[in-house]
């Protein structure tokens, strides 16, 4: 049984969407531009990129954002950011700016909510540890690549190409003054596959890692805006760095000032343009903020009681356990991984079958999907016998 839309409601919704689409920038991604591997006939109000938002919100790894590190791990303080807070802040900042620029805010939301799905336990710190394991087996681990892999090659959820491309091409570590869409992106899934294959072995050059949509470009800089000030706020909450230790320049030193000033500057320099840009002054000030964060925060973020050597040993132990299990009985894979990947059993079975000949990939995929506490608990239960 299902409920159908009233004919009058359907007519009004159609008219309203037509009016909204007519107001979009000529450089915005239209709903009809969505590229999928399989045809999706959108419902009247559940349009292409709205569908992608809803798919992301219902993914197992979206739930696990709440247990994954932003900067500070395993803090007994509910005011310290997790990935769950971060992706929502990125989404809000990007949609606020995107609305002012008349871009497609549904696509912006989908990319923003999905952009960190590939992050592993313990954030960027854990990413380096898992990359160390991957390098021993001839490839590399990067969270933005893992996010695209998760959507396209693990759960195979038929996400639009524009969203997967935005996830693959986000890079909050590299700050640019201007973000112009890469015209070679968002064309075909064969092109996406080639980019992933290159990325797995660190052969994908930086120019190729620019989103093919203006919305994807905006999410990339919104990612930076979201963490620059909030990381300072978290450091202050933990009494590690005081706000008055930062310089008070053009963008301010507090989170709300940084978000507002950068948002206004980007709108001023991007409205009506086919790129996202900052002024010379704002770009220079942002680089200074980032340098200060590296000096005062990111070198002092290991406050959870675990040194990198201990965590590396933990990751190595868990990897070896899963790797050996995959080559032998798959008891651990079948019990602790397979049931929690995705609700669609056929897609999961397809993914497992494709990767049995690459046990290192299965092991790293499983670890990447764990939360901080679960990794430690799993290690305690299975590796300390």
What does the model show?
By secondary structure, this protein is mainly α. 57% of the residues lie in helices and 1% in strands. It is built from 17 helices and two strands. It has helices at 7-22, 48-57, 60-64, 83-100, 105-114, 123-135, 143-154, 161-169, 189-200, 214-237, 255-270, 280-296, 308-327, 331-337, 345-355, 359-368, 372-382; strands spanning 178-179, 276-277. Helix 4 packs antiparallel against helix 5 (105-114). It is globular, with a radius of gyration of 21 Å. The relative contact order is 0.12. The mean pLDDT is 93.
Strand order of the largest sheet: 1-2
Mean pLDDT: 93
Cα(first) to Cα(last) distance is 52 Å
Portion of residues in beta strands equals under 5%
Derived structural class: mainly alpha
Tell how many strands the DSSP assignment holds. 2
How large is the radius of gyration? 21 Å
How would you characterize the largest beta sheet? 2 strands, antiparallel
- Shape summary: globular
Helix content: 55-70%
Describe the structure using short key phrases:
385 residues; mainly alpha; two-stranded antiparallel sheet; 17 helices; 57% helix
Itemize the secondary structure elements and their pairings.
Elements lengths: L6 H16 L25 H10 L2 H5 L18 H18 L4 H10 L8 H13 L7 H12 L6 H9 L8 E2 L9 H12 L13 H24 L17 H16 L5 E2 L2 H17 L11 H20 L3 H7 L7 H11 L3 H10 L3 H11 L3
Antiparallel strand pairs: 1-2
Brief synopsis:
With 385 residues, this protein is an all-alpha fold.
